[in-house]
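Reopening this one. Same input as before:
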Amino acid sequence: MKFYFVILAMMSTNFRSQVLIKITSIPKGTPENAKIFMANSSNNWNPNDPKFELKKDSSRNYTLQITENKGTLEYKFTQGNWEIAEGDENGNKLENRKLFFSTNPQTIENQIVSWEKSAINKNTASENVKVLSENFYIPQLKTSRRIWIYLPPDYSTSNKKYPVIYMQDAQNLFNDATSFSGEWKVDETLNQLFAEGNRDAIVVGIENGGAERLNEYSPWKNEKYGGGKGDAYTEFLAKTLKSYIDKNYRTLPQAKNTALIGSSMGGLISFYAGLKYPEKFGKLGVFSPSFWYDFKDLNLFVSENSKNLTPTKFYFLSGTKESENMVSDIQKIIPILIKKGVPESNIKTKFDEDGTHSESYWSREFGAAYLWLFKK
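Same output, byte for byte:
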């Protein structure tokens, strides 16, 4: 199935150069009435910006005129959302295309070889889940990351302010399409709890950095696996991302209304961030935490942390057979927290014999953890 799409970029103030981008083919099965957009670095990667929608002309070509800029423009084609973006030859995520502006006329041909297969085949995200940003900048790490946001069902029809949950590994939270091993079904769970009259919350999901995940999710270095960027990552959560969310959404910004939840290494960094910034995050969901990664330094940090943890609530979850030390590591940490002034009533542990180190287990237990952390 082939079409001829054209993006015509012309300078608004002179005619020194034109950039003609051609899309000479699209994947079979693309809907006949599909809308094609050019998300790019000049429009904050908006996947459905009307200013960058390609329009069919009388010759059935798709054309778009834009004002030429200096330097490099990164771009990618979508069908109006990041759930259906162009993929590589295997249907996986495609790196951004690059357009180098020049003073000479140029023609650049493109082929869309696939739409991301997972997005087409098993998109399970609810309508009230969106990609907040495809490339949210993390100044502390000099990188960017995709950020997801879940808004309660009544967000657009009310003037309420909401508590906020910040969660790690966003690839696995809302959409089976982006998860490598299933999803937590956070959106389905919260939508159901909302329908039952329970308290609602905004959820902000931060995608992990792939190969950088272990580095960013541990403040200390493991001799075998690395690490050590956790301080920079938690500073991003506390000072950059939380500030942005509180400024742009109707939130209850106090620590008592703000939670961090994560699993495995995400559980470790959520726990650490909560101890480092208790004035920002007052509720912690620590699922199957990888305290083993550097238990000695973690133990020392908890013992020597002088900040006030008295109001913080902790929900620890683990399967009893997940690893040899997971449950015992949690049990060793709890007396230290109590010694630091955390009331026993603010600490909840749940150890399940059938618990596994998996999204299916964490998905099953997410609702109960949420209800305990945010109980009225």
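So the earlier flakiness isn't reproducible anymore. For the record, The chain has eight helices and 21 strands.
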